[in-house]
């Protein structure tokens, strides 16, 4: 079963993502973080790396793009999916993470699950929705 690490400063969304993923039953939750700094610290301490990091872009302490870059510096094989309401594209991202899929808010549960599946199956460099 694939494992996911969820990062979002909005506690309601963090809990919603966890609940949806738990109900789905297809994924293990490897961990959760409510801030960029917390995400970096927790990721580096994980004994077993998650199969995918779900990363919010807009966070108050360290933005998700910077966190994704830091995680990739630490683990070049890390799979990351950005989640944002911003109108960003892969060409707007730094080269270290220009291959990560981007899921745009708002999205349906179906879109969410589909995007995770695509990200886990190595579909890189594409906007999902």
From TrEMBL:
GO biological process: phosphorelay signal transduction system
Coiled-coil intervals: none
Keyword field contains Phosphoprotein: yes
InterPro entries: Bact_response_regulator, CheY-like_superfamily, Sig_transdc_resp-reg_receiver
Keywords: Phosphoprotein
Response regulatory domain location: 3-120
Keyword Nuclease listed: no
Residues modified to 4-aspartylphosphate: 56
Classification via PANTHER family: RESPONSE REGULATORY DOMAIN-CONTAINING PROTEIN, STRESS RESPONSE REGULATOR PROTEIN 1
Protein name as annotated: Response regulator
Organism: Methanocella conradii (strain DSM 24694 / JCM 17849 / CGMCC 1.5162 / HZ254)
């Amino acid at each position: 079963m694939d494992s996911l690490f969820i990062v979002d400063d909005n506690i309601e969304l963090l809990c919603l993502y966890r609940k949806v993923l738990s109900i789905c039953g297809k994924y293990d939750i490897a961990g959760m973080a409510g801030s960029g700094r917390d995400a970096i610290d927790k990721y580096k301490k994980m004994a077993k790396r998650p199969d995918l990091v779900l990363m919010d872009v807009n966070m108050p302490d360290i933005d998700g793009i910077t966190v994704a870059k830091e995680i990739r510096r630490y683990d070049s094989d890390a799979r990351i999916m950005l989640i944002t309401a911003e109108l960003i594209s892969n060409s707007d991202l730094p080269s270290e993470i220009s291959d990560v899929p981007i899921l745009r808010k708002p999205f349906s549960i179906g879109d969410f699950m589909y995007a995770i599946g695509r990200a886990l199956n190595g579909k890189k460099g594409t906007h999902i929705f």
